[in-house]
Design a protein that fits this description.
650 residues; mainly alpha; 28 helices; elongated; transmembrane helix; DUF2339_TM
C-alpha cells in the first residue's frame, strides 16, 4: 500500500493559490463566475499563505530523514560506540573473545571526523563545473523551503499593498514593521544556518530582500531617507549574509550577496549622481568580494565582481559623459579606474603566487581587468597623453608576468600577463601613430620580437609560433594592397620609397626571422648533408616570406625598368621567378628537402601559367624573348639536376 504524503492537500491548495495570484496579477480574461471564484481564492490566500509557510517550516525543521541533517550528531556515533564497548569490558560484562565472536574489533574506533580520506587530485573540468554544481544542488536540496519563501514574499507584498490601501497602519509604522520582519528573518537565518545551511541561507536571503524592499519604499514612497543613507542601510543588510557565507562556507549565499549589493544603488537612484560616491561604494563592494575570495578560495567571485564594476563603468564610458563631464569628474573617474585595476591586479597575482595554480577565473579576471583599464584610458585621457599613460599598466603587467613565472613556472599565468603587456604596447603604438602603414610596420616588428621572447622565456617554440600567427593580420592588409597593384593600372607608378614598400619589406623580413628562429630542430643538417625535417608551422612562415619576397622583387623591377619598357620589367620578373623555382627545385632534390622542392615547383608553375595567360598581351618581340628566356632556364635546370643525380649515383 502506497503511503500518502501528509501534506499533499496543502501542496494542491498551494498550486491553486499560485494560479489565482498569477491570474489576478496578469489580468487574464475569464468568465465572470470564474473571476469571482478567483478573487475569493486570492483574498483567502492572503491569510492562508503565511500559515502554510509556517507549517512547511515546522515540517522541514522536524523532518530528520531529509538530507539536511547536522553532521555533528552523525560524527559522534562512533565515539559513543567505542566508549560503550570500553565500559562493557571494564565492568566485565563482555570479554574480548565474545567481542571477536560477534564481529566487533577490540581496537578503538576512529571517529568519522578524524578519518583522513584519500586525496584525489581535482581535474580542471571538475574545478570549472564546481560552482554550477553547487548552485544546482543548492536549488534542488530542500526546495520546499525555497518555494515557500518565494511564495511568502509574494504574499507579504500583497498583504502590505492591501494594508496600505486600507490605511491600517501609518507610514512610519509600515517601514518599522518591514525592518522588524527583515531583521527577524536575518536572525532566524543566522541561527538556522549553523545546522542547516540551505534553510539558513534561504532565510538570510529572504531577510535581506525584505530589508531592501522596505528601504526602497521608505526612499521613494515616503521620502524618509536620503540616497546615501538608504544605500548605507541596504549595504549593511547585505553584509550580514555575506559574512555568514564566509563563516559557514556557503558559496551560493556569497553570489546572492554580491547580486544584492550590485542592484542596491539602482534601487535608491544612486547611479550617476556623483562620481566619487558611486565609485567609492563600488570599491567597497569589490574589495569585500575579493576579501571573500582570499578567505575561501572561491575564485569565480573575482570575475563576477569585475563584471559588476564594468556594468557600472558603462554609463561613464559613453560620449555623453566625456562631452558633458567636467575635468574634475573625469580625473576622479580615471583615478578610480586605476584604483580598481590595482586592486584586482594585486589580489589576482597574489592569489596565483600563493596557490601555485591558475584556472580560467584567474585568466578572465586578469584579461578583463586590462581591457577595462584600457577602455578608461581611451575615453578619459586626452589624446596627447594616452600613449604616455598606457606605459604604466604596460610596465606593471610585464613585471607581473616575470614575477609570476619566476616564482610559479606556470606558463598560462605568464602568457596572460605578457599578453596584457603586449596589448598595452600595441595600444600605445596606435595612440602614437596615425598612418596605417606605419602602424602595420610597428605591429609587425612587435609581433616578431614578442614571439621570439616568448619562445626563449618559456622554452617552447610551439607557443612562440602561436604568437607569431598574429603576423596574419598585417599580412592580409599588405597583401590586399599589393594585389590591387598587380591587377590595377597603377603598378608602374608606385614609388619604391613609400610606406607600402617599407611595410612589404618589413613583413618579408619578419616572416623569414620567425621561420628561422622558431624551427623545431636541434641541428640544421644531418651528417650526410640532408636537411632535417622542420616541424611545427615554421615552414609556413618561410613560405610566406618567400612569397612576399617575390612580390618585393616584382616592385623593384617595376621601378627599375618601367621608364624604359614596361614589358621588359614584366619579362625580367618572370625570368627571376623561373630562376628561383629551378634553384629551389634542384637544391631540394639534392638535399632531399621535400618542402623546398614543393616551393620550387609552385614558383615554376606560377611563372609558366603567367607567361601562358599574360604574355599574349605583349608585343610579338617581347613575347618571343619571354618564351625563349624561360624555356632556356627550365632546360638548364633539368641538365643541372640530371648531372647532380648522376654524380650522386656514381
Amino acid at each position: 500500500m502506497i503511503k500518502r504524503h501528509p501534506f499533499r492537500p496543502f501542496f494542491i491548495l498551494l498550486s491553486v493559490m499560485v494560479f489565482a495570484l498569477s491570474s489576478y496579477f496578469f489580468g487574464i480574461d475569464m468568465p465572470w463566475v470564474v473571476e469571482e471564484i478567483v478573487e475569493e481564492i486570492f483574498v483567502v490566500s492572503l491569510w492562508v499563505l503565511p500559515v502554510l509557510l509556517i507549517i512547511g517550516v515546522i515540517y522541514s525543521l522536524g523532518n530528520k530523514r531529509s538530507g539536511d541533517v547536522p553532521a555533528q550528531k552523525n560524527m559522534g556515533n562512533s565515539e559513543v560506540l567505542a566508549k560503550l564497548i570500553k565500559l562493557l569490558e571494564i565492568k566485565g560484562i563482555i570479554t574480548a573473545e565474545e567481542l571477536s565472536g560477534i564481529g566487533v574489533s577490540q581496537s578503538p574506533m576512529i571517529p568519522l571526523e578524524k578519518r583522513v580520506a584519500p586525496v584525489v587530485p581535482e581535474t580542471e573540468s571538475a574545478r570549472e563545473n564546481r560552482s554550477v554544481a553547487l548552485f544546482t544542488s543548492w536549488i534542488k536540496e530542500n526546495w520546499i523551503m525555497k518555494l515557500g519563501g518565494l511564495i511568502f514574499l509574494i504574499g507579504i507584498g500583497w498583504l502590505v499593498n492591501y494594508a496600505f490601501a486600507e490605511d491600517w497602519i501609518g507610514p512610519r509604522d509600515r517601514i518599522t514593521l518591514g525592518f522588524l520582519v527583515g531583521v527577524a528573518f536575518l536572525l532566524l537565518g543566522q541561527w538556522r544556518i549553523r545546522l542547516y545551511k540551505n534553510q539558513g541561507s534561504t532565510l538570510l536571503v529572504i531577510g535581506s530582500v525584505v530589508f531592501l524592499l522596505t528601504t526602497l519604499a521608505g526612499r521613494f514612497i515616503y521620502d524618509f531617507f536620503t540616497p546615501a543613507l538608504a544605500l548605507s542601510m541596504m549595504f549593511l543588510s547585505v553584509v550580514f549574509p555575506a559574512a555568514a557565507s564566509v563563516r559557514h562556507r556557503v558559496y551560493p549565499l556569497a553570489i546572492a550577496s554580491l547580486i544584492m549589493a550590485g542592484i542596491a544603488p539602482f534601487l535608491v537612484d544612486f547611479v550617476m549622481r556623483d562620481v566619487f560616491e558611486t565609485f567609492s561604494y563600488l570599491f567597497v563592494v569589490a574589495a569585500g568580494t575579493l576579501w571573500i575570495v582570499a578567505l575561501t578560495g572561491w575564485r569565480n567571485l573575482a570575475p563576477a565582481a569585475l563584471v559588476l564594476v564594468f556594468l557600472y563603468d558603462l554609463p561613464y564610458l559613453t560620449s555623453y559623459f566625456t562631452s558633458h563631464a567636467s575635468g574634475s569628474e573625469k580625473s576622479t573617474a580615471l583615478f578610480f579606474a586605476f584604483l580598481f585595476a590595482a586592486l584586482f591586479y594585486a589580489v589576482n597575482l597574489a592569489g596565483i603566487i600563493k596557490r601555485r595554480s591558475v584556472d580560467h577565473a584567474d585568466i578572465l579576471t586578469a584579461a578583463g581587468n586590462g581591457f577595462v583599464l584600457l577602455a578608461w584610458i581611451s575615453i578619459a585621457v586626452s589624446e596627447h597623453l594616452r600613449s604616455i599613460v598606457v606605459v604604466v599598466p604596460l610596465l606593471v603587467s610585464a613585471v607581473g608576468a616575470y614575477a609570476v613565472y619566476s616564482v610559479t613556472r606556470i606558463r598560462a599565468a605568464f602568457l596572460t600577463y605578457a599578453g596584457i603587456a603586449f596589448a598595452m604596447l600595441v595600444a600605445a603604438t596606435a595612440f602614437e601613430l596615425s598612418n596605417p602603414m606605419a602602424l602595420i610596420i610597428a605591429f609587425t616588428v612587435e609581433v616578431s620580437v614578442a614571439s621570439w621572447l616568448v619562445a626563449v622565456i618559456v622554452q617552447s617554440r610551439q607557443i612562440g609560433e602561436r604568437v607569431a600567427a598574429l603576423l596574419a593580420i598585417p599580412a592580409i592588409s599588405v597583401g590586399t594592397q599589393i594585389l590591387s597593384w598587380f591587377v590595377g593600372a597603377t603598378r608602374f607608378t608606385v614609388p619604391f620609397f613609400s610606406n607600402e614598400s617599407a611595410a612589404l619589406a618589413t613583413l618579408t623580413a619578419a616572416f623569414f626571422f620567425v621561420g628561422y628562429f622558431l624551427r623545431d630542430t636541434s641541428e640544421r643538417f644531418a651528417a650526410n648533408g640532408a636537411l632535417l625535417r622542420i616541424r611545427g608551422i615554421s615552414p609556413v612562415f618561410i613560405f610566406a616570406g618567400a612569397l612576399y619576397a617575390n612580390m618585393f622583387i616584382q616592385i623593384i623591377l617595376w621601378q627599375l625598368f618601367a621608364g624604359a619598357s614596361e614589358n621588359f620589367a614584366v619579362m625580367g620578373a618572370l625570368v627571376v621567378y623561373a630562376l628561383e623555382g629551378v634553384a629551389c627545385y634542384v637544391v631540394g632534390h639534392r638535399r632531399q628537402a621535400k618542402g623546398i622542392t614543393q616551393f620550387g615547383v609552385f614558383v615554376l608553375l606560377y611563372a609558366v601559367v603567367r607567361i601562358i595567360i599574360g604574355a599574349w598581351d605583349f608585343p610579338l618581340f617581347w613575347r618571343i624573348m619571354t618564351y625563349l628566356s624561360i624555356g632556356a632556364v627550365l632546360i638548364a635546370g633539368a641538365f643541372i639536376r640530371k648531372s647532380k643525380k648522376q654524380t650522386i649515383t656514381s
